[in-house]
Amino acid sequence: MNQKVILQSRIRFLIIFFICALAASGLTAIPLQWELKTLLPLFGNGTRFSSMFPVLTKWLELINTGIQNGYGQFPFLAYGTDWLAFGHIAIAIAFIGPLRDPIKNIWVIEFGMVACFLIIPWALIFGTIRNIPFFWQLIDMSFGVIGMIPLWIVRRDILRLTSEA
Q: What is the rounded CA–CA span in Å between residue 34 and residue 40?
């Protein structure tokens, strides 16, 4: 296989991976009540996990209380996370452009890289304002760091393709 075919294959694979990961992370925002009901028997109070990571267990219990009570009494609050999921899906769709023509649509990859970078100050600022524990802010920021890796590789490979053309 020549270098151009290898680059094109890796670009396609990483973009498809990124699209799927972005869509999946957004879609997990919809069934929060069910997710917490599923997680708490495994990670809630009285589990083996709770003795190893009591701070995380306490945080999950607090989230569960807020979601169950908030969504139960005010179901329209869930509409915000529905829109969060929609945003993820809409952004994921934008990456079909570079999937079809990576050189012409490199700007979408660069947009994604900027968005991944912006997750860090966004999580720090609003996590602090909303009293989100720092360890959870780190988890949120990891999405930006992890998302940046395939996008950086894709951008690098697109630039290599451009220089070979």
A: 10
Single out the residue of 47, 44, 81 nearest to residue 60, CA to CA: 44
**Structure token pair of residue 66:** 């807020």
Q: What is the pTM of this model?
A: 0.91
Domains in the chain, number: 1
Residue with tokens 């945003």: 87
The domain in which residue 157 lies consists of 3-164
Mean pLDDT (whole number) for 33-39: 93
| pLDDT at residue 116 is higher than 90 | yes
What is the rounded distance in angstroms from the CA atom of residue 165 to the CA atom of residue 22? 30
Of 12, 11, 26, 39, which Cα lies nearest the Cα of 143?
A: 26
Residue 155 one-letter amino acid? R
Half-sphere exposure of 35 toward its Cβ, with a 13 Å CA cutoff? 10
Contact yes or no for 60/40 (Cβ under 8 A): yes
Q: What is the pLDDT of residue 157?
A: 98
Helix 32-43 to helix 78-94 angle (10° resolution) is: 100
For residue 75, give the amino acid letter: P
Q: What is the mean pLDDT of residues 63-91?
A: 94
Distance CA 159, CA 155 (A): 6
